[in-house]
Amino acid sequence: MSKIISILSGKGGVGKTTLTANLSTVLQTEFGKNVAAVDGNITSPSLGLHFGFHEKFPVSLNDVLEGKLKIQKCVYVHPSIGVSIIPCNFSFYSDKNVDKLKKVIKGLKYDYIIIDSAPGLGKEAITAMEAADEIIVITVPQFVDISNALKTLQLARKMRKRIIGVVLNRVQNAEHEISEAEIEKLCGCKILAEIPEDKEVQKSTYRGMPLIVEKPNSGTADRFRQVAQALGLKASVPEHHKKVHKEEKKHHEEPLGDLTFLDKLSGKQKKHKKKK
Ligand SMILES: Nc1ncnc2c1ncn2[C@@H]1O[C@H](COP(=O)(O)OP(=O)(O)OP(=O)(O)O)[C@@H](O)[C@H]1O
Ligand SMILES: [Mg+2]
């Protein structure tokens, strides 16, 4: 049976999609698991971008939620990482059919299904929580973000969801930040990892390749591994990520498909790569 984990935050922009992409990747490439990453952020999706898909998807989760096709038909297996991505399209979609997520996701058979949730506690985030067996909350160690993370945890407890723990992201160890011990006390659950503020994370987002593949030997990559270990797993393919890295470079040299507004961005990324 698949284990469904939703990544939630309360506050937006704190690193949910970054964590979803890196956790899915590390589980697939280093922990030997078969993983699906689902974009549960229906109205403002970005999971595809984090995996380097910049073109419009021919079919997406939006079509599944509208009842037009089965979820198995919109699975995109990443050519080098191997994670199965179930994306949403970038065009405007309302959250009208979001509540079908839990039902359609049952059609997927994987070791792990990681759902990237929308920010806040609106319909989309609540649906992602409902669909999950377990949840991970991610926050930046600052008051505003933590207060929203607390609301998310409160709701998860009300819904009797198992809380794996909290990930602290963009940690700078600055004076204005709340300490790990304090956050742990406030949240009443385990801190799974402290991911530092790291420009390499932004660069990897820009290039559309999770940091765990781009910089596998970095301290930040180890923090993402720590989150996977918190699921009670041991790495089974520790050297695999290096091979993936080489193969991915090859993949990115291939021409892009349909022209969209995002192709301009892809063009810039290609130039950037040549400079390297
Ligand atoms: N540890 C980090 N260090 C530096 N930049 C980071 C870090 N984590 C995430 N970022 C950057 O922050 C931005 C937002 O991250 P991300 O898209 O994962 O947030 P999100 O919570 O999914 O946002 P939203 O709520 O809008 O869906 C991205 O550009 C990403 O590269
Ligand atoms: Mg996101």
Question: How would you describe the overall organization of this protein?
Answer:
The protein has 276 residues and is an alpha/beta fold. The chain has a single domain (3-135, 201-275), classed as Rossmann fold, CATH 3.40.50. It is built from twelve helices and eight strands. It has helices at residues 16-29, 47-50, 61-65, 101-105, 123-131, 143-158, 180-187, 199-207, 211-214, 219-229, 240-252, 261-275, and strands at residues 3-8, 35-40, 76-77, 84-86, 112-117, 134-139, 162-171, 191-196. Strands 3-4-2-5-1-6-7-8 form an eight-stranded mixed β-sheet, sandwiched between helices. It is globular. The chain starts with a strand and ends with a helix. Mean pLDDT is 88; it is low at 240-266. The site of magnesium ion (MG) has 5 residues, from helix 1. Adenosine-5'-triphosphate binds at residues 9, 12-18, 41, 46, 119, 169-170, 195, 197-198, 201-202, 205.
Short description:
The chain has 276 residues and is an alpha/beta fold. The chain has one domain: P-loop containing nucleotide triphosphate hydrolases (Rossmann fold), CATH 3.40.50.300.
Give keywords:
alpha/beta; Rossmann fold; 16% strand; 276 residues; binds adenosine-5'-triphosphate; binds magnesium ion; eight-stranded mixed sheet; globular; 12 helices
